[in-house]
Amino acid sequence: MNEKTMDLLTVRTSGQWHEYFLRNAAQRLEVPWEQVGQGDQGLGAQADELSHKERKAVAGSLQAWQLGETSDGRHLLAAAERYAHRQQDPLFIEVVRLFIREEQSHGTELGKFLDVAGIPRIRRNWGDSMFRAIRYCLPSMELWATVVIMVETLALIFYKAIRDATRSPRLRPLCNQILHDEVHHIRFQYERLAILLRCRPRMLLQATYGLHRVLFSGIVIAVWLGHYRALRAGGLTFRDYWQGAWLRMRFAWLRMDPSRYCWAEPEIGRGSAVVLAADP
Question: In this structure, is residue 52 part of a structural domain?
């Protein structure tokens, strides 16, 4: 093995992602739900789960993100099925199903927390409606992965702020679990975008990144407008939030750049090997 080969990293195939999602589903962090007292609302609302100040800061944001995490994923699955058929990679469909299931588990657990804390769930939110409209307007795998990676990049900032904004013994480990999951979700998306973009001419690729920046700017501002109380309660100023968002997204852009990859085979799918050049 020469020095060049030793500097390469292997990107997960569909089979490896399938194994990861199955393993992660079986290794969830423990949330102490059993400490919840029995009351009139099933799980029992706890007046002391959040202080008045904490509730005022995070309740609305938790309601909105819980709604966003409960998508049934039909449109994403349809896009994944079309893509998997073209790539002759049928296992990718099951991987996307597991990805959707993991996202839905976030919604389930967040809903459970809302019930425990006595915070009503909501059925509509302007931010959730906007993101769904963006994803649905062009039902392609590339657009889905692009929007998802941007939202999940901001989720890293959001859930860390929520965790730091409260002393809840249930919400904090729940946020830790979601943060763990989102790191891998982002990797799943930037690897897929690298595959999708690898045959695009460099000039068109730069134009694509330019459109990404415009879209990301809008999403960053929209999330701040919708959740600045929670983000501030977690210790973030707008400057902190803005810089953190772009730092994380620049990392994702770096990792989705096809020029950083050494493609081992001409086609992706059916478990073919893909290799990524290591960071300098």
Answer: yes
